[in-house]
Amino acid sequence: MNAEEHRSTKVFRDYLKIKSVQPEPDYGSIVKFLEEYAKTCEFPCRVHEAVPGFPIVIMTIEGSNPSLPSILLNSHTDVVPVFPDQWKYDPFSATKDEEGNIYARGSQDMKCVGIQHLEAMRELTAEGVRLLRTVHISFVPDEEVGGKKGMKPWCQQEDFKSLNVGFAMDEGLANPGDEMRVFYSERTARWASFVAHGNPGHGSGFIPDTAGYKVQKILGKLLEFRDQQEARLKSDSKLTVGDVNTANITSLKMRVQPNVVPDRLEVGFDIRVTPSEITQVDEMLDSWCSECDVSLEAFHKQNEMGITSTDPEDKWWKAFTTALNNCNVAYTKEIFPAGTDSRYLRQLGLPALGFSPMNHTPILLHDHNEFLNERIFLDGIQTMRAVIESVANVEN
Ligand code: ZN
Predict the structure, then answer these.
(1) Sign of the torsion formed by the C-alpha atoms of 36, 42, 43 and 48
(2) What is residue 189's three-state secondary structure?
(3) How far does residue 392's CA lie from ligand 1's centre (Å)?
(4) What is the tens place of the pLDDT at every residue in 90-131?
(5) Class in CATH terms, 7-186+305-391
(6) Distance from the CA of 62 to the center of ligand 1, in angstroms?
(7) How many CB atoms lie within 10 A of CB 126?
(8) Which residues surround ligand 1, an ion (CB under 5 A)?
(9) Which CATH class is domain 188-301?
(10) Average pLDDT value for residue range 41-53
(11) pTM to 2 decimal places
């Protein structure tokens, strides 16, 4: 059936069939697959473990001036869990239907991009194109659970520093419309609980100043903030969700028993903050604490979110967008609504753009029946190729 299948599609589908699914990704098969690929293309390839048992595969194609800072093309090899009974096909069969839609976990997030990086470089190399800068294609584990055993430690190690990276590319998102989306920063998360303490007592009385009163106030603040931000997004068509803040209540905890007014109640939340408003939102959370007489606990927060320049004169941005223009690809520039490994690179001060060339594609990452159309995937290789050629030939 696949005798005449496009070479790149075949590679993509083979990669999708590997069950590198959290919480126990088969990284061994990933390494084997990538090493075999590197061998057939004669790409120098090595494996580094920033954390033992979590392999990072790095292929290096040397440029004509290897002393210049290099280009890093990064993708993660793990994928999120599936609920197979909700899928039309086995999520690790990479079934291609009559319309050319390839169904598999990771088809959008982000095994497509990993193969597009590889196939773009394979084509360039096969045609004898020598780029000015060295290109490293990296495949990292653990991104879907936060990157603590992948990009986060790696980018702090000598091994990473030895790559002398000057510019990096990582994942973006699909778009149902015409444009491809380029991400230059991301929102940061506030995961925490507001904890309210109040007077306990018997559930049959009029207890003053209970934890319940305080929780009611803080819930009101959270929901009001959420509604304001949604209205702000809807009021301006130029804004995307990455430009505003979102707030969701994710847990409510109490204790004791039905006839006891508890002395403590907890409201867990997930607030995602756009990078230019981090201080403002933190100050707001603090002020809510004093206004509602609650405290913040288990605060997970990241303070600095790097922002990669999109100044028209910035050499990387210019090279990147010139390539898109030359391919007649319309694009938008956006702030990524959630987190990716790019944040670790930007924290080092490295310019990084998130780019998954998938227009005319519904956004199905982490969803059931994730798919990517073969045509979009193959066209994406050509777009990727143009972009890589452009950034890897930036002179200095
Ligand atoms: Zn991803």
Answers:
(1) positive
(2) strand
(3) 24
(4) 999 999 999 999 999 999 999 999 999 999 999 999 999 999
(5) alpha beta
(6) 27
(7) 9
(8) 109-110, 171
(9) alpha beta
(10) 98
(11) 0.91
